[in-house]
């Protein structure tokens, strides 16, 4: 019966498989392989995002992905990449990355599952260490070819009389025309702070791109896309936090941070630019996560629709706050760190993680 099913019906069945199960199905016979290639845009549609962990130092061309459905890890080879990379942000099924072997900002797109890679065009202005933000224009679970924009603000550029200067302009890349555009100027003091104290991670919420400054005390920089205006927000417990990260949850800007010897907390931005405490990491999970230490200093965060994740090294485990029971409530979970993959030991590495929707459909954006 399976060998005689029409391709459209078989493709619908395939759309309920996770990417690793789909890869096995594709290798079962010629008809199934042809079906999966003929109807790539339908595969898959109904699955949670996966956590991708990339070593922060170049320790071989590979990355690790966690399947949340069956709670296991896979290793993916990155030997198809021309340079070592660092993830900047996920864009649905793709990852926006930057090569780490050059100080000048050059961005690229990558799908580690289809082994596709493509550099974006060079910016109009050569910059080092600017802030980078991403806006996906097609909300929901995107396919392999989403429409998105990348914003680059600040950074250091070459001065007209030699030397370097802070670059007080903002550029925008649109995936529809594959080109960068100068969007205007920004206050020099904002350019300085975005260049010196801001990591690449950004959050887009309600028409505003936000970045967290890493200087003590923490603060939040915001750029309103509609009016091309900048603003600054305060951060709760800003002078006491050992780490702070911005996330997106249920349509609201969310902040996660922790102080020495105390719980990690989660705040939500409310009307009037006030922060409201909505949750704390459970004490027992916090102790397990910190491994007997009192410091949250090396903690990193990631978020996807319906989940927030705190992580450190690859083998130390992750704390996850996840939406369950048809989006009725959120609960805390512990995800074990990875020490072995197919009976082969892996090192406990420092990692940078992002969530993405794995898809085996080739993207025309990477052609």
Automatic annotation (TrEMBL):
CDD domains linked: F-box_SF
Domain of life: Eukaryota
Annotated ranges, domain F-box: 1-34
InterPro entries: F-box-like_dom_sf, F-box_dom, Kelch-typ_b-propeller, SCF_F-box_component
Signal sequence segment: none
Protein's name in the database: Protein UNUSUAL FLORAL ORGANS-like
Natural source organism: Herrania umbratica
Gene assigned in the entry: LOC110427479
